[in-house]
Amino acid sequence: MPLQKRHRDFGWLFIVCAGLFPLVLGILCTAIEARHTVRQQQIAAAGTLLAQAEKMSDSAWDMITTLRQYQHRPCAEIEETLQRTGTLNAYFRSIGMLQGDRISCSSAYGLGHGRLSEMMMQPPPVTGKAWWSLSIRGTLGVPARPAVIFVRQLPDSSGFWAVIDGQYLMDFMHAMGESRGYQMSLQFNGGAIIHSGPGEQPAQLYIKSAEYHATSARYPISVHVTVPASELIKSWRQALLIFLPMAAIFSILLMVLTANWLRRRLSWADEIRRAMRNRQFTVHYQPVYSTEIERCKGAEALMRWQLPNGEMIRPDIFISHAESEGMIVPLTRHLLELMAEDLQSWPVEPGFHIGFNLAAEHLQHPDFVQDMMRFARRIRHKQMVITLELTERSLIEDGELVARKLRHLQSHGMKVAIDDFGTGHCSLSYLLTFPLDYLKIDRGFINAIEGLETETPVLDTIITLCHKLQLDVLGEGVETALQFAYLRQRGVGLIQGYYYARPMDNDRLQAWLSEQGRQPLSAEVTHEPELHHPG
Ligand code: G
Ligand code: G
Ligand code: MN
């Protein structure tokens, strides 16, 4: 059925989205959180490294300040002191004095007094400053290990220098970065890069490694801390591990809630309630012909449900859902409301029958009598005969109480009919229990009619039964002239079916009542072969 099917397709999408939502959100949030955490750690590591490099610079400059006391002494005199000072103080590879660009004295054992550029294996930087420092790839004595050189030049072209071994910084960076896989590096004054840790790693899965760069406020030192993508993913995975069980619970919870919400929202009960609010229900009326007065004697109200897109929902479907979801009482009240509006302008004479279908649940409802009486009051001025049609689709419990209510309503001029007689499971017991006025024979029995003179045993028996019980009898679903003639011949006083009239909406019915409704119905069965027999 289209209505329900559409809802179900739609619903699955909703539930899947609800389930995915916490997961997607969690993956995004943990990714952001992991990146943030890594950044904080990077900043901390860079700060620590800078502080260490600054501390080393401090001690290098302190050393140079100490060396100034030897400014005018010959090298031979102070060489030993320089060696001792340079060895006993941490960090230093060598210290010494300068004369112009020549090294005039050095703590380094056995090193010739060459040029500064030879010792540092590169030309000194052109800074124009008396104080400078530079990271270098190595020194003449230890060419393969980086170092940092600090130089103080005095106005008389003498000067002092100190070389700090890069190993200390490399060990420090290694100790800090190893456990987290950081690549750290530092540079003095844009010189050689001193670094530790693994070399460049390939980018993984579109995730770039995170870089952080910091500089010292006191010295020309800059440091880089790079966290490889693999480390980023690792910390993301850790965050996910903590978060995922929670997200899964949320996901399930949200799916259950959504499913529940959908079931409630898209239930027939809610659809029917909404349709009543939006006036999607209308009433169609099928005329009933009386063979006695040879004109229209009444009409049966049949509910119709049209969706805004024009689609009709079949009454047998929505009625049975209304019955099973406890909506049949409100729906029938709605029907009576609509009928009361429609009937106001009907061109009918007093005594016209207006019938409608009642469900067992409504008959057993405490407000049943009240509902019927309210309807009766609303159409009182039309002086119609209200006919209550009881179906046998669902069993009427507490028959005695219902029978009392029906007798009460009969005392107010209403009629009681059994609808679809013969198809239910308790037709005959209904005859005993309820105060009936007439009986509507189900169209199944009418369909069994084969010829005007041929017997139709079950139908004939039902008709006889009605006569014996002094009940009016109505034939339902009369579609042919033969069926009409047959029933009229056997004293069936009321006829309903396509042969006489189809159900019509209010406007068409009113026009019909003023025209065809006043005409007798002829049984033009002369064309049918059965009638060529005399009789
Ligand atoms: O014409 P039609 O297809 O409407 O009828 C289909 C079924 O729906 C019939 O069995 C009829 O009794 C039932 N039906 C139609 N309208 C109503 C109604 O207002 N109330 C109840 N209880 N049944 C109805
Ligand atoms: O169950 P109840 O008798 O209330 O419902 C009447 C149903 O029978 C409605 O669905 C109505 O449209 C249908 N109906 C009325 N007349 C005919 C008819 O002549 N032939 C058929 N097949 N259905 C009919
Ligand atoms: Mn009916």
TrEMBL record:
Keywords, sorted A to Z: c-di-GMP, Cell membrane, Hydrolase, Membrane, Transmembrane, Transmembrane helix
Keyword Hydrolase: yes
Gene3D superfamilies the UniProt entry points to: EAL domain
UniProt cross-references to Pfam families, sorted A to Z: CSS-motif (PF12792), EAL (PF00563)
Domain EAL: 265-517
EC numbers, comma separated: 3.1.4.52
Signal peptide from the UniProt entry: none
Tagged with keyword Lyase: no
GO cellular component: plasma membrane
Reactions mediated catalytically: 3',3'-c-di-GMP + H2O = 5'-phosphoguanylyl(3'->5')guanosine + H(+)
Top class in the EC scheme: hydrolase
Entries under InterPro entries matching the protein: CSS-motif_dom (IPR024744), Cyclic-di-GMP_PDE-like (IPR050706), EAL_dom (IPR001633), EAL_sf (IPR035919)
Transmembrane segments: 12-32, 240-262
Membrane topology category: Multi-pass membrane protein
Entry's localization field: Cell membrane
GO molecular function: cyclic-guanylate-specific phosphodiesterase activity
The protein's name: cyclic-guanylate-specific phosphodiesterase
Organism of derivation: Candidatus Pantoea soli
Higher taxonomy: Bacteria, Pseudomonadati, Pseudomonadota, Gammaproteobacteria, Enterobacterales
